Amino acid sequence: MSEEAAPASPTASPVADDKAAAVLAGARTVFLSHGFSAATTDMIQRAAGVSKATVYARYRTKEDLFRAVIEAECSRHLANVRALETRSRTLADVLAALGQAYLRVVLAPEALALFRAVVGEAPRFPELARHFYQVGPNGFQAIVAQHLDRAAADAQVDFSLVGRDMAASQFVNLVRGEAQMQCLTHPGSIPSQAQCDQWVAAAVGTFVRAFARGGRADL
């Protein structure tokens, strides 16, 4: 891949089959364990249990394969968040449920490993880092924004000062900021559920107080 020329045709692309799934699973294991730069084709093929030709037949470059891993991981996590049942709840309850779901994603060991790998390669592969942002953090912000739309339509909140999208971004950063930073700088440390509850409660309380109409605290 990056470290050697691919023998496959220039038009080779991922194929939806069992071997493609095996390649992707093997690449996930290698990238999350060793990062992007240290990963090699040999390591990926061994983890996938396939030949090097099979790897190249489905992904032309290591960058293509890393991009596919990013997309698969983010898609899986966001699907779990979208599946949350949030109807008939107050806005504070909805935001708390979203915040808890998001922390379960971003504080998971595999998510922290992916984040480190992406950020570590951002200077060399800025397009991959940007894609990670679009399909990961920005995807979650879009989910939050949809719920904020409903609250705004019911006149529960007022985002006229900053706009809905900025408000959604601020909520996500309130939830993620300290929690993710602590886990990134303390490898192997697993926050308790009580700590996660505290982070989410602080984020929700701050957000609701900032944007509730008329200073309401019962949203």
What topology emerges from the helices and strands here?
Layout: H1 18-34, H2 41-48, H3 52-58, H4 62-82, H5 91-106, H6 109-121, H7 126-135, H8 137-153, H9 164-185, H10 193-211
Looking at CATH, the homologous superfamily of the largest domain is Tetracycline Repressor, domain 2
What does the radius of gyration come to?
20 Å
Considering DSSP H and I runs of 4 or more, what fraction of the residues is helical? 55-70%
Strand residues, percent: under 5%
CATH topology of the largest domain: Tetracycline Repressor, domain 2
Order of helical and strand elements = HHHHHHHHHH
CATH architecture of the largest domain: Orthogonal Bundle
What is the total number of structural domains? Answer: 2
Report the oligomer. Answer: single chain
Total beta strand runs = 0
CATH structural class of the largest domain: Mainly Alpha
How confident is the prediction overall: mean pLDDT? 89
End-to-end C-alpha gap: 52 Å
- Counting DSSP H or I runs of 4 or more residues, the number of helices is 10
Structural class, judged by helices and strands? mainly alpha
Query: Outline, from the CA principal axes?
Result: elongated
